[in-house]
Structures are given as structure tokens and as C-alpha cells.
Recover the amino acids of this structure.
């Protein structure tokens, strides 16, 4: 009886003091692998001229600092631009280009260009199902000088078959917003 | 339907063989004249179960001397020999067993004091009804217990308006350490491993800890006291979710020598359905095991037990949002963003949880009056949460936490004449490890925690009708965490200067910090029990409890993907202190019984999440919720009544109301359960099959008291950013559900079989519940037919 008690206590002691160890040396900071820190939209005039770059950069990811939004210059009225959008994670080391990943999973992603009176955006790429992705597009600037907001939104798992979605109307798209940026842009007379 | 007809034939066939035999009938009650629902009555190979009114009938008993055993788990069995010559009535009064030290309820025998702790039970027969559901669902049967849900598979008990870290769950006397801080982390426990579940509102049972500001949930395993081998299997089939559960267990009881229990559960559900649409990705799976072995000697017993809980739970696709604009769209559209055809497949977002619990227990009688219990428990909780991710990270968990807890405790109990003394010490070590492989900065950091506690409780019976109980407890706790902070976050939280001493390493954009906190807490309880006459009893309690901030309240600092909110803890968070007063008045009558419990709980430094602004990221804006501390007052009343309307009919009423106020701002507290009224009519046929019909009406009123934490989000519309109101605060309208249940017992060979048929939400009512975290996105589940078969052998 007494032996039993002693051996029980011994067992308890062994189990509890051998199985707890802390190893602080193994600690490494987690770098966000999935965060998009930087969106760059590049507009190249079809007939040559000044390339316009719109960029939003948030180097603390989901941290408290807001993204820094820059617009390199004014668009020119009546000009057609070839547009591309790239996505980077600058928190990863080395910097990760997420654009290719979005392209490969094009059937699960779509970019939307929302604006009012700034001109016309047309998709210039397709996913495996023949639906637009939006990484490539053309922008026809409005014929007259104007200014306004352009919101570029990347949706993950949108419903690409819903009404209007393949024409770039976001209303019925659903899914989750992976990135959304609003740029204030000017279209100037040539 | 065909099945029912077959069943009917089977029953008719069985009833033909009655000749020159007698019927034994009667009522099984406890010492307080409360009917015992589900007691076993055996005569030879014939057996029956008592119905909810406590009555039973055993037919076809051969005349002559017969041994009758009437037993009920947790109560000492009646074992007697009667001479049966004609139809006879045998009423049995069973006494509560207090032989096990872990039992909370003091023995009701006249020798010891009456308990001043109010403990409300969910009995085995009720737990069995919820075999394919969860513990949280079953606990809702107790007035004053609501449920905080995430969908329908993650259900947490809310006791008098409080939940999570404020409501510890004790399984087989072990405090469940399953990352209970999270509102979407339900108790990691198989409901089918429980023999009885009880709730103690408030922190008056100090032997379990001094921090149960809301209350305690005690889960006790099935234990068979007699020398018998008993088996049970339950099969439940549900129409909603097109799935069900199978559970089986074997129990070997013994008065001496070896006793053991073993069992397992398997659950499989696909998408649940609301009246109007499929709730996509709401399936769940569970595969659980539990077993124990016990050696019982004259003066001591030794036991070892192990349980394993393994669950995969889908989180409704529609609740996954990318930004505040998505949330605004979800709320304003009123319909889920994702509705797919029914499937059993569970995709991200989902949770995968494993919980191991191993325990060694040694009980010994030190003298005829005193007992000592020693216990060691090991728990390993592994939680993985998967989110909708891109590319290579697609199948990688977004959160991966492993929590290991060792706990050691010694409890001593002395009972003699009018005095009961209880005392004990406890020690625990806990280690949390957040896997860095997720590629997402973990909300909960790595930490080590050490706890030690000691308590003493004394109870004295002053007169036959008056006893009192007082307790005191001290707890020490030390937390040592390793946490990375983004430097921008560290600065925005104002930690610069204040917590510089925590900084260990500079990693460029991040600080590695080593926050350490030590807490010394005192808790106390005082209770009295006054019996006015055999039917009236008054119990009054006053309690002081202290709860330390949990890891999420201290350390959270980032995007909570499942909520679409940025949650910020605060290293300055102080412990909560609760002062609770409650009174229970009980009346036991042959026609009307009731129990009413008014209470007031004043909590200083009450910790809660409050929206304090928005932050912009490249995904758009997110609302920022910060853990804030204010003084709170919760007052309320719980009511339960049973009315016996004749021999067959019983009417039951449960009501609960809680009024929570932030005393610093005079605002209502967020997430307080609305007023609920639950009416049931139970008709028992008092026949040999214990047939019953039950109609239940559940009325949940609109919560009109809520703080307005609404905010505006910029939502792109026609190319312009338009500020849109995001109404996260307004509670949904009240709702009313009707449920029906029926059942009967019959014997198949030697097997006692019960069949029951239940319809929940008969009218397929569309509703949303204030405390279901899915409510902003989807309706709650619609009608559900449940067919359950139970075999006792």
C-alpha cells in the first residue's frame, strides 16, 4: 500500500518534470507570406509617350500604417493605354512576386476597374475558361479632360459566371477582396 | 413509416404472452421527492426505465419471490426481494451517493450539512438526446445558460451572460485547457463520454478554481457502481446536415476489484441547411475515444483514464470576408455571399482540433471520516485553423497552436457529524507553441504559464434546517511569453517607453519581446442553506472571484481572419474581479415545483472587445477592435418550474433574463443573451413502453439593450468610394421555434431498446440568433428530423 503511494508519486513527478521544456533559441519572426504589400498598375501609351504608374505600397502589411498611394502623372485625353498590374510581397525575403500566382490561378481571381467617366477599361487576358482575369487590360482615356477616382480591386474566388462579372461589373461578383486601392487620377488635354 | 408499422407489429406480438403473471409498477424518486428520469428497474431478465415523471411499469413478471434491483447512476441502488402474487406497486427512494470525492454535491443524508452550492444537472437521459449535437446544446436545457455559437457545430455555454475564459469546464475533475479564450473555440469534448453534466453559476465551488466569474461546467463520466457489465449504443440520424452519429460504450462496474469503461463516438455531417438555402461548408466530423480503468480496494482506489477528441469543423463560406467593404455588402444584402449545392466536403475555412486528456487518480480513506485524492492530468490540445489562401499556402493552416498542460492536485475531505471540511492544493504548468510554419504572424504567442493554488472550505450544519459554508482560495500565476511585435504596432499601441524592458531582440521591422506577468489572487465564498419546511428551501451565496487576462486579451495584435477584424490586446490589461450575490428559492411540491434565482454580479475591470476605429491595408479598411476594461454590472433572474397536471401531463417552464450594463459609460454590455422563455408539455402514457410525447416552444425575444458600435466603411460604388453604414450592433428580431419529440422503449431479445423521433423547428422558421457569430451573414438552420435508436445491454 505504502509502496504503491510512493511509486505513484514518483511516476507523477517523472511525467510532469520531464515533459516540459521551453526552447527560446528556436524563435524566429514569422514573415507574412501571403500579404500583398505593393500593387503597381503600369499604363503604356499605345502610340508611345509617357508611361503612367499608379502604386500603392504598405510595408507593414496588416500593421497600423496605412498604404502609401502614388500616381506618377496625368493621363492624356483620347489616348489608348496598354495596362498591366503587378502584385508584390515586399515583406518576404527576397521580395515575392505574386502576379504569376494570380495568373496561374486565374480562374479563381479577377481584377475590377471601377470608375466614373474616366474612360473605358477592357480586359485583355483570359483564364483557362475563357473568362477575363484583368492582369492585362487596355484603357481608353476619356476624350475630354476630367478627373476622378479609379478603384482597382482584386477578388479571390469571385463568381465569374454571374451577370456582368465578365464585363468588369463587380456588383454580383461575390468572393473576398484580396486587394483594393483607390487612385485619384487626372486626364489632361494633350 | 413502414418501420413504424413493423414496430407496432413487434410490440403487439410481444404483448400477447401475458398470462398468470403480474405487473410491478411504481415511482422512483430521490430523497427530495424529485422524480428520477431514466432509472433502471431489473427483475431477472426483465427490465424497464422510469419515465421523466419517475414512474415505471414492469409487466409479465412470474409470480413468486423475485429479486428487484432499481438503480440510477450516481445514486445507491435499491436491491431487494419481494414476493409477487398480484399486480403490485413498489415506490423507490434512491439516495445520492457521496462516496466519490470528486462529487460536488454533499450527501443529502441527515448526518451532514446541506450544500450551500446550487448545482443544476443535465441528466444522462437528456445528454443522450443530444448525442449527435454538442455539450453547449445540451447545457441550454438549464435556465440561465445560453449558447454562443459559430454556425451550429461550435457551441459555447454562456452562463448568466458570461462565457469562454469566465466559464471553466471541468471534465472528470480536470480543468479542460483547450484554448477556451476564443469565442469560436468550443469545449473539446465528446458529449457521449459524459454521464452527467452540471452547472454551478458563479465561483462558489472554490475547489475548482477561483476564476469562474461566470460559472462552472462539471462533466462527470458514466460510472457504474454495481458489479455489472453494461453496454450502450446510440445511433442518431439527422435530416438537416444529412448525417448523424454512432456512439458505443461498455461499462464494467465493481464494488471491489477492477472496473472499467470504454467507448467511442463517430460523427459525420454535411452542409446544414437554412429554410431558404444551403449553409455551404458547415459540415463537421468527429471521431472520439474514451476509456478508463479503476482498481477498487477496501480503503483506496486507483484509476487511469484517457480520452481523445478529434474534430474537423467547417466554417460557413459566406462568413469569410476580405475587408470591411465585403462585410458591409454581406450585412446589407441579407443573403449569404456563397451558396453552393449540398456537399459533405469540408473546405477552408475550417478548424481541425485534437485534444488528448490522460489522468491518474488515487483516492484513499485516511480515516472513517476523511479522504484524500491525488490526481495528475496531462492535456495536449492541437488546434489548426485553415483559411482561404492562395497558391502554395492553400493547404497550410493559418493558425497552428499546440497547448500542453500538466496539472497536479491533492484534495482532502473530512466529514463528521455536522462538519464538512475540504482543503487542497493544485499546481499546473502550461506551454503554448504557435507554429511559425503558417506564414502568418500568430495572434497568440508562445508562452509558459505556471499556476499554483490552495483552498479551504468549511461547512457546518447549525440545525436540521440550517447550514452554512465558507471558503477561501489563493492562486498564484506567472506568464512568460515570447512575442514578436511589428515596430509600427508597438509604437501605435504606445508601448514605447512603457514596456522597453520587455524588448529582447531587434529584427528590423519587428521586436522580439519577452513580457512576464505575475498574479496573486484571492477568492472567497460564503453560502447558507435554509430549509423552511420539507418543501421550501432557500440558498444564498456571496462570492469573490478573480480572473487573470488570457493570452488573447494581452497579446492579440493583428488581423483575425475569421472575423475580418483587427484585434488588439493590451499588455496593460488588469485582472477582472467579480463580486456576485445570488439567492435561490426552491419549492418542491407534488403538483408544482419551482426554482427561482435572482443574482447580481459586479465585475470591476471587465474585459471586452470594442471597435475603436479603422485601419487601412492594401485589402481595404478593417475595423479595429480593442480589448477595453470597464466596470460592469450584470443582474438577472433564472426561473424553472414543473407543474404536474394529472398522472400523464407535465408542464415545464424555463425563463432567463440578464441585464448587463457598462457602469463607466452607462451603455448596455455587448452580446448579452436576450430574454428567453421555454415552454414544454410532456405527455407520458405510463404504459409498459414508457411512451411519451413532448411539445416544446422556444421563444427568444429581441435583445433591445445593446451598445451601438456601428461604423462606416468606404465601399466602392460606380467608381466612387461611398461611406456605407456597417451595422454590426443591431440584434436580429426575436424568434419562436416549435419542437416535437416522442419516444418509446421495447425489448429486442435481451436488449432494452429505445426509439425516439424528434422534429426541431417544425415550421422551418427563418431566424438569426444574436449570439450566433454567423448572424451577420446567414440565417440559422431550418427544420431537422432526428431519429434516434438506443440499445442498452
Amino acid at each position: 500500500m505504502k509502496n504503491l503511494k510512493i511509486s505513484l508519486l514518483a511516476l507523477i513527478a517523472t511525467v510532469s518534470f520531464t515533459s516540459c521544456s521551453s526552447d527560446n533559441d528556436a524563435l524566429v519572426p514569422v514573415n507574412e507570406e501571403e500579404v500583398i504589400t505593393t500593387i503597381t498598375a503600369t499604363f503604356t501609351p499605345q502610340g508611345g509617350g509617357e508611361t503612367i504608374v499608379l502604386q500603392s505600397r504598405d510595408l507593414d502589411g496588416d500593421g497600423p500604417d496605412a498604404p502609401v498611394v502614388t500616381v506618377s502623372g496625368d493621363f492624356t485625353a483620347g489616348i489608348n493605354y496598354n495596362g498591366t498590374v503587378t502584385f508584390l510581397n515586399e515583406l518576404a525575403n527576397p521580395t515575392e512576386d505574386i502576379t504569376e500566382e494570380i495568373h496561374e490561378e486565374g480562374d479563381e481571381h479577377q481584377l475590377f476597374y471601377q470608375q466614373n467617366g474616366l474612360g473605358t477599361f477592357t480586359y485583355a487576358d483570359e483564364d483557362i475558361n475563357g473568362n477575363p482575369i484583368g492582369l492585362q487590360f487596355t484603357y481608353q482615356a476619356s476624350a475630354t479632360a476630367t478627373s476622378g477616382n479609379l478603384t482597382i480591386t482584386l477578388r479571390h474566388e469571385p463568381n465569374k459566371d454571374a451577370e456582368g462579372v465578365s464585363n468588369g461589373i463587380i456588383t454580383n461578383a461575390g468572393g473576398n477582396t484580396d486587394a483594393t486601392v483607390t487612385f485619384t487620377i487626372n486626364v489632361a488635354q494633350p | 413509416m413502414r418501420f413504424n408499422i413493423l414496430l407496432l407489429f413487434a410490440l403487439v406480438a410481444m404483448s400477447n404472452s401475458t398470462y398468470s403473471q403480474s405487473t410491478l409498477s411504481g415511482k422512483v424518486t430521490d430523497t427530495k421527492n424529485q422524480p428520477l428520469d431514466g432509472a433502471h428497474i431489473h427483475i431477472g431478465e426483465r427490465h424497464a426505465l422510469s419515465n421523466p415523471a419517475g414512474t415505471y411499469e414492469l409487466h409479465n413478471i412470474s409470480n413468486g419471490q423475485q429479486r428487484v434491483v432499481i438503480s440510477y447512476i450516481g445514486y445507491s441502488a435499491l436491491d431487494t426481494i419481494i414476493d409477487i402474487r398480484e399486480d403490485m406497486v413498489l415506490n423507490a427512494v434512491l439516495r445520492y451517493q457521496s462516496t466519490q470525492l470528486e462529487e460536488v454535491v454533499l450527501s443529502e443524508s441527515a448526518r451532514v450539512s446541506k450544500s450551500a452550492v446550487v448545482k443544476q444537472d443535465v441528466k444522462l437521459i437528456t445528454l443522450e438526446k443530444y448525442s449527435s449535437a454538442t455539450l453547449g446544446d445540451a447545457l441550454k436545457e438549464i435556465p440561465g445558460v445560453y449558447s454562443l455559437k459559430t454556425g451550429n457545430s461550435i457551441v459555447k455555454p454562456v452562463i448568466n451572460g458570461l462565457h469562454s475564459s469566465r466559464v471553466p469546464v471541468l471534465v472528470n475533475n480536470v480543468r479542460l485547457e483547450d484554448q477556451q479564450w476564443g469565442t469560436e473555440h468550443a469545449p473539446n469534448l465528446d458529449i457521449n463520454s459524459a454521464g452527467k453534466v452540471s452547472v454551478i453559476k458563479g465561483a462558489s465551488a472554490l475547489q475548482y478554481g477561483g476564476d469562474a466569474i461566470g460559472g462552472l461546467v462539471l462533466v462527470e463520466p458514466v460510472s457504474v457502481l454495481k458489479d455489472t457489465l453494461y453496454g450502450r449504443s446510440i445511433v442518431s440520424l439527422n435530416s438537416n446536415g444529412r448525417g448523424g452519429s454512432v456512439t458505443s460504450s461498455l461499462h464494467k462496474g465493481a464494488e471491489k476489484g477492477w472496473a472499467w469503461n470504454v467507448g467511442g463516438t463517430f460523427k459525420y455531417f454535411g452542409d446544414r441547411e437554412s429554410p431558404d438555402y444551403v449553409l455551404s461548408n458547415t459540415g463537421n466530423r468527429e471521431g472520439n475515444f474514451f476509456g478508463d480503468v479503476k482498481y477498487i480496494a477496501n480503503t483506496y482506489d486507483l484509476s487511469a483514464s484517457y480520452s481523445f477528441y478529434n474534430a474537423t469543423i467547417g466554417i460557413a463560406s459566406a462568413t469569410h470576408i476580405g475587408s470591411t467593404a465585403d462585410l458591409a455588402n454581406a450585412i446589407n444584402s441579407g443573403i449569404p455571399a456563397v451558396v453552393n449545392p449540398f456537399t459533405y466536403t469540408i473546405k477552408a475555412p475550417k478548424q481541425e482540433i485534437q485534444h488528448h486528456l490522460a489522468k491518474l487518480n488515487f483516492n484513499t480513506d485516511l480515516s472513517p471520516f476523511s479522504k484524500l485524492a491525488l490526481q495528475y492530468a496531462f492535456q495536449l490540445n492541437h488546434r489548426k485553423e485553415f483559411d482561404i489562401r492562395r497558391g502554395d499556402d492553400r493547404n497550410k493552416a493559418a493558425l497552428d497552436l499546440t497547448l500542453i498542460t500538466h496539472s497536479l492536485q491533492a484534495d482532502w475531505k473530512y466529514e463528521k457529524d455536522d462538519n464538512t471540511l475540504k482543503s487542497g492544493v493544485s499546481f499546473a504548468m502550461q506551454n503554448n507553441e504557435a507554429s511559425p510554419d503558417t506564414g502568418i504572424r500568430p495572434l497568440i504567442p508562445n508562452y509558459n504559464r505556471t499556476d499554483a493554488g490552495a483552498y479551504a472550505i468549511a461547512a457546518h450544519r447549525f440545525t436540521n434546517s440550517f447550514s452554512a459554508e465558507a471558503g477561501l482560495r489563493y492562486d498564484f500565476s506567472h506568464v512568460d511569453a515570447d512575442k514578436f511585435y511589428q515596430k509600427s504596432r508597438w509604437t501605435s499601441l504606445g508601448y514605447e517607453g512603457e514596456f522597453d524592458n520587455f524588448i529582447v531582440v531587434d529584427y528590423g521591422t519587428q521586436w522580439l519581446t519577452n513580457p512576464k506577468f505575475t498574479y496573486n489572487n484571492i477568492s472567497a465564498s460564503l453560502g447558507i442553506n435554509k430549509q423552511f419546511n420539507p418543501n421550501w428551501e432557500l440558498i444564498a451565496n456571496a462570492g469573490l472571484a478573480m480572473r487573470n487576462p488570457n493570452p488573447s486579451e494581452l497579446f492579440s495584435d493583428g488581423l483575425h481572419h475569421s472575423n475580418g477584424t483587427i484585434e488588439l490586446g493590451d499588455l496593460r490589461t488588469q485582472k477582472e474581479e467579480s463580486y456576485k450575490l445570488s439567492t435561490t428559492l426552491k419549492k418542491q411540491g407534488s403538483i408544482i415545483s419551482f426554482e427561482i434565482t435572482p443574482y447580481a454580479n459586479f465585475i470591476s475591470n471587465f474585459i471586452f472587445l470594442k471597435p475603436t476605429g479603422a485601419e487601412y491595408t492594401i485589402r481595404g479598411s478593417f475595423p479595429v477592435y480593442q480589448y477595453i476594461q470597464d466596470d460592469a454590472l450584470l443582474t438577472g433572474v433564472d426561473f424553472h418550474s414543473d407543474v404536474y397536471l394529472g398522472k400523464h401531463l407535465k408542464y415545464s417552464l424555463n425563463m432567463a433574463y440578464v441585464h448587463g450594463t457598462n457602469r463607466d459609460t452607462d451603455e448596455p454590455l455587448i452580446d448579452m443573451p436576450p430574454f428567453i422563455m421555454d415552454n414544454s408539455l410532456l405527455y407520458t402514457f405510463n404504459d409498459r413502453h414508457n411512451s411519451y410525447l413532448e411539445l416544446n416552444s422556444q421563444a427568444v425575444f429581441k435583445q433591445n439593450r445593446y451598445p451601438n458600435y456601428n461604423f462606416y466603411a468606404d465601399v466602392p460604388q460606380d467608381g466612387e468610394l461611398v461611406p456605407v453604414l456597417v451595422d454590426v450592433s443591431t440584434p436580429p428580431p426575436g424568434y419562436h421555434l416549435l419542437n416535437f419529440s416522442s419516444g418509446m422503449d421495447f425489448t429486442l431479445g435481451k436488449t432494452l431498446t429505445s426509439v425516439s423521433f424528434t422534429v426541431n423547428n417544425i415550421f422551418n422558421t427563418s431566424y438569426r440568433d444574436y449570439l450566433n457569430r454567423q448572424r451577420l451573414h446567414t440565417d440559422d438552420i431550418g427544420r431537422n428530423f432526428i431519429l434516434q435508436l438506443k440499445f442498452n445491454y
